[in-house]
Amino acid sequence: MEADALHLLADHIGDAFVGAVDMILGCRQRVIVSGIGKSGHVARKVAATLAATGTPALFVHAAEAAHGDVGMVSSGDVLIVFSNSGATVEVQPLCIYAKAIGCPVIGVSRNPNSLLMRTADLGLALPQVEEACTSSLAPTTSSTMMLALGDALAVAAMRARGLSGSDIRALHPGGEIGLHLRSVEDVMHSGDRLPLVGLKTPMPDVLVTMTEKRLGIAGVVDEQGELVGIITDGDLRRHARNVVFGTAADVMTYGPRTIARTARVQEALELMNTHRITVLFVVDDRRPGIPLGAVQIYDIAAPPAPALAP
Length: 310
Description:
By secondary structure, this protein is an alpha/beta fold. It has helices at residues 2-12, 15-25, 38-52, 62-65, 92-100, 115-119, 141-161, 165-171, 175-180, 184-187, 203-213, 233-238, 242-245, 248-251, 265-275, 297-300, and strands at residues 31-35, 57-61, 78-82, 105-109, 122-125, 196-198, 217-221, 227-232, 253-254, 258-260, 279-283, 291-296. The chain folds into two domains: 2-163, Glucose-6-phosphate isomerase like protein, domain 1 (Rossmann fold); 184-300, CBS-domain (Roll). 43% of the residues lie in helices and 17% in strands. The protein has a five-stranded parallel β-sheet, with helices on both faces. The longest helix has 21 residues, at 141-161. The two termini are 34 Å apart.
């Protein structure tokens, strides 16, 4: 029932949605999102999504608003109120105050003729469908539609603003999103931690370097310091006869894959997964043959979820 309601909601969106996005884009300060009960939980999440996608926003609890929190709302804000019935008593003082100070109000409700929708400057009416619970009373289908509508408003505003990956990165400095949007040079191993050897380096010395640097590889550079090859554990097994008496040139694989230092971590992870490798050498954009560092998949891949106890 909830899935069907989302399809119906998509068909239901019209000019009012465009008007709501325009109001959000024209907001001089913050978007205030409010509600109570299940609608309040949705409102809190929508406020967080707006903020995470480039629209300054905060959640104000409708009941607390009548006891002083209404002071968080100013004339330069835009207020979005979620209420399934549109007649929730707790949201009315907030709407009245917002109208009094000239703060535009967007109402979201299943009842287009409700007090909220009549009071709001713009109403977003949800389709009339039954709740998914057995008694059709507990907010289930309606709250799902509210959440999807809130996400749509946030994403539409984000796209209209033309936010780039760098903008999103600035808003998500932590967690997996922040990591994947960082530059490769931010997470690479460099300096003394970089396992580099020369073409003529004896293999016993190469093994010492690989062991000390602990990346499972060694990069091979020529006389000009340019990366010409790579030695991995697989190369050691394939060239076992040369491991004792050979040189790096005898064992290495020519033409290793590299990535520019300005590339995003996400690009490095995709490249590693595509070619089934665990380490990439990082090179300068202007001098692509000179190795600046190395990035290992264990540094950038999300850790596996812990196993559940039997």
